[in-house]
User: What shape does this take?
Amino acid sequence: MQKEGDVRIPSGCAISGIFSRSGKKMNGEAIIRSITTMHDRSNGLGGGFAAYGIYPRNKDLYAFHVFYGSARAKEECEKEIMANFDVTVAEKIPTRKMPEITDEPAIWRYFGLPFEKLLKDTQLDEREFVARCVVKINTQIKDAYVFSSGKNMGVFKAVGFPEDVGRYYCLENYEGYCWTAHGRYPTNTPGWWGGAHPFAMLDYSIVHNGEISSYDANRRFIEMFGYKCTLLTDTEVITYIIDYLNRKQGLSLKEVADVIAAPFWNEIDRLPQAEREKLTYLRNVFSSLLITGPFSILLGFSGGMMALNDRLKLRSMVVAEKGDMTYVASEECAIRAIETSPDRTFAPRGGEPVIVTLNKGVDA
Amino acid sequence: MKINADNKHFKDLNNEIRVSEETEITVENCLGQRYIASGMSGKKITINGVPGNDLGCYLNGATIRVNGNAQDATGDTMNEGMIVINGSSGDATGYAMRGGKIFVKGNAGYRAGIHMKAYQTHHPLIMIGGETGSFLGEYQAGGTIVVLGLNSQKKVPVGNLCGTGMHGGKIYLRCEELPEDLPKQVQAAPASPEDMAEINGYIEEFCGIFAVDKQEVLSKNFYVLTPNTKNPYKSLYTFN
Assistant: This one.
């Protein structure tokens, strides 16, 4: 089977997200109901979910979700993981056999922490160490693919319609305070399990509807900092850009949005001086990370979620609030399917991030 | 007659509407079904719930009323008839519309009236009670767009780059000042009595449909935007 890297794929797609600011845990049923409403936006060649707060018993350990295409890949990958991490749990991810989901790889997960000694020897920050291990496995071990690598969160994805993928992974058995979902419409490839969304790096996960035209400019820049864009999909490069700007450069998420969906120069020119100077600085320093072309994305991270549209708003996105809940979806119907009477419904402007985080003191 | 749209695929729902011999149809529990009343004439359809994208696309004389919000591309390429949204509508409302009327009580998203056009007796209208997003009337070639900004706290009830690519038709904005970033190819002037006479009937219709006080609507100034034929578009996209 051809992987994403072999052929380019423009895609249509649907996204949906649910977030509880009070940290209330929900199982996967609501997000499945939501994404099901937008069935016709995807074509059965990719669906996936990211869930936060789902591993409370192992919340301080990195949870690696891995696809294996062969027994040899599993052997090699486990050798690499065991050499770097003190692994306390290694198990198959529970799945449900169903006719809609076929050609499954072996799907495993591992909970562990990097060995102290290795961290000292390499003088790397823990998260950087983990990120490098993931990149190494994904680029060097054939048929092994780590598709989730954060703490107390997990990505579940497959080739299929999202509602089937949700049932396949038994998401009714997981409880999280934040869920994001994706239905995919790739048009040029058979679709590949690893190429489904969400894309994740550490605890960042991205679901994306759109097709960016700045891919190569973005890729050339981001690969200077140790990332390897192996899948040739725009979502992968967006994930790395956010990891780079937010984790490595320490930009706030609002600033990240100001870089990747920067206002036009003529808008910047009309702003008050302090804001004008800041935005000019960000656009100049990170000019290669401006993402052009249509996109609407949902970024999940530990304790929060961000929704963002491209600056021209070439994709649809609706946000609704009800009590402590925030909902985001490509279409309003996907929100109404799970919340019939929101307090407020609105469409954010292009480039205007909507950021929600857990209330102060909530430990989910 | 009533049709319960609960869990119905858009194909089945639209077939049911199409084959029905009754001319007044109410759709209950609508949730995201697309293309409702596509190309339809001679029927009056009421929708309770959230209709999906391309509501009333190619509409050819039918009347649609939505009790709630509509999604994207409402009235896409509609030819004749009327769509009333008793809530807000999404992006590209009235996309490439070439006849008929769309009335939205609340706000519209980005690119309302994009590629709107007019021909002989076909003269489309989009009237928005609240605000719109950016690129209102993008590439507008004909027809009338009116944005009232009722209940709007903003100085100008439209987003950025209003009228980009406009080369025909008229945009009416009810506000005390103009958008700061009007393209040079668009000229703006306070509405003349003749301009206001042109939309007087439309305002009355809007006020009648949504029970809005006409005097309040007329209590603010209107500006009219038209293409500036002395300064037409050229090389627009070479500067970014």
